[in-house]
Structures are given as C-alpha cells and as structure tokens.
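Appendix C reproduces, verbatim, an entry submitted by the partner laboratory led by Prof. M.T., so that reviewers can inspect both the input and the predicted structure.
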Amino acid sequence: MNEQTGTFLGVEFFNPERLWALLILPVLVILYILLLQLKRNRGMRYTQTGIVGAVLPRQSQWRRHVSVSMALCSLVAITGAWARPVGIEKVPRERATVVIVLDRSLSMQATDVEPNRMDASKQAAKDFIAQLPASYNVALVGLSASSSVLAPPTTDRGMLNRVIEQMTVQDGTAIGDAITAAISAVGMAPGEQDADPAPAMIVLLSDGQNTGGQTDPLVAAQQAKDVEIPIHTIAFGTMNGYVDIDGARANVAPDVALLGDIADITGGRAMDAKSANQLNDVYQEMRSEVGYEEVKKEVTAQWALYALAFAFVASLGAVSMAARWP
C-alpha cells in the first residue's frame, strides 16, 4: 500500500482524521459520573425513610464500573478500526539484487575455523546462494588489496559457484574499496535503470582489519546509505586466529567494531561467526533479511476483534447485574 498514513499515540492509521470521534469519550465519562451522583442522591433520600433495602437492592459497584469501562474500551477499539490501523507484515520479495563480498585476504588461511576460514566461507556462501530465490540476481566481489567485481549480478547459480571455487587468497584487506565495488555491481543488475529497480543489499564477510585502499570504509558505507543499499556484515573468525607470514606469526582477529559501524550507517545488521556452523546459521538469518521485506497492511479486522472482546465482557457485566434485579 502506498497510501499516506498518520500516527496517533505511536500507532499508524490510514485515516487518522476519523479518530476525532474519540472526543465523545470524555463526554460519556462525565455523563456516567453525573448519573452515579444522581443515583447516590436518590439513595440518600430512601435511606432517610428506612426503605432503601426494600426498594433498591444493593449491587456490586465494581461490576458496574467494569461493564462501563469495557464498553468504553470497545468504543475506542471500534473507532480505531474505523480509522483503518496499519500493521507490518513480512512478505517474500519477488526480486532483489544481492552482492556478496567475500574476504580473500591472506588471513583467510587461518585454521581457527575448520578446515580453514577460506574453505569454510566458500562452502557457506555457496549454500547461501543456493537457498536464495531463483529470480534473485547475485553478484560476487572479492575483498583484498585489489577488491573487484568477480561476477556481475546474475541468476546463473552454476557460474557463481565456479567463481567461488576459483577464488584464491591475495594480499591486503581494502574494505572501503570492496564496498564501492559492490555498489557499482548493483548498477550492473538487469533492469537497474528502470523506473522501479529491484531492491539491493550487500552481504559483506571479513575476517581481519582494514589495511588500506583508496576509500575509507566508513566513507564507502555512507555512499551505500546515500543510494539506499543496506550492508549486512559478518565478522568471521575468532580473536585468537593467526597465520604465518614470511616466517612471522600474526594475529588475524576480525574488526568487529568497524563492521558494526558499517552496518549501523547503512541500516544493515552486524553479526559474527566463530565457526563454520555459526557461519551457516548467520547466513540463514541473513536469508530472512534478504528474502523478505516488511510491508504495511491494514489490520482493521484485528481491531474489530478487540472491540468484540471488550463488548463481550461488558455484556457479561450487564447480564450479571440484571440477574440481581427483583
């Protein structure tokens, strides 16, 4: 739905102007209080003559108050239903462009994740791609000192798997350059120049620190935000991971803080995985983010049900009081 909505007390409505009908509530409350006072005054006159017990059997005040309160709540709910309240529903996307950024830096040789980070990430990426709807265009970007588009957006899953299998480790980790490459890959998607292009998102997996590149990672993240492309990040590996480079042992822990900032800037999610199983679980969660979108829908029936429930309780109270009448 593309209708304009308005918000009242934190709830969205398609026709919030109809809520003016709720102004009758304070009038009804005042009228109820006045009637109670009038009845109390009449009761005092009967008390003075000593015949109140014979003429007006006492009824539980709380039943009356509950019945009236429920009736008023029913009125609020039915008025809210008339104003057409808005709810959020997650529905499958029919089309999308997903750019997967895979780290291929030297740190991916670390064996803190079995059999090693590189092989584990390759298999998880292939499984993730296989679970995406066949209509989705998927692109691949390699993350290293020379980050580049390895495969433009395509629905050819076999070709994507072959590209992933052929990936080899390279020197450096230019996260900012990888993001700009991913943004450019989105522009290569079929139909991207149409008036209504498919929604796009980037899934970025990295296992180490940013080591340079032409674009600062946070600047690149802002560029993604400007074109409304969320970046979901995965910090892969443990804090104790290491690789031996030129005879020296180097710690290769993921930069969780930087990846979190990138996700925050772009409106994506930041997650971490310390094992192959955890990485598969993360990709499963990412699939729910990628494969579904939140859409606004009218939930009038739900509010009408609330009104019916309140009216039912009010009716029970009224019947309970009526049963005590002589």
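Residues 52-57 have pLDDT under 50 and may be disordered. Additional entries are available on request from the coordinating office.
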